[in-house]
Amino acid sequence: MTDLAQTSPLQEEGRSARKRRAIMEAATGLFLRNGYQGTSMDEVAALAAVSKQTVYKHFTDKEQLFNAIILGAAERVGDFTDTVAAFADTENLEEDLGELARRYITTVIQPRTLQLRRLLIAEAGRFPAIARDYYQRAPGRTIDAFADTFQKLAGRGLLRIDDPSGAAAQFAWLILSQPMDRAMFFADEQQYTPADLHRFADEGVRVFLAAYRT
Amino acid sequence: MTDLAQTSPLQEEGRSARKRRAIMEAATGLFLRNGYQGTSMDEVAALAAVSKQTVYKHFTDKEQLFNAIILGAAERVGDFTDTVAAFADTENLEEDLGELARRYITTVIQPRTLQLRRLLIAEAGRFPAIARDYYQRAPGRTIDAFADTFQKLAGRGLLRIDDPSGAAAQFAWLILSQPMDRAMFFADEQQYTPADLHRFADEGVRVFLAAYRT
DNA sequence: TGGGTACTGGACTGTACAGTACTGAGTTGA
DNA sequence: TCAACTCAGTACTGTACAGTCCAGTACCCA
Question: Is a pLDDT exceeding 60 seen at residue A3?
Answer without folding.
Answer: no
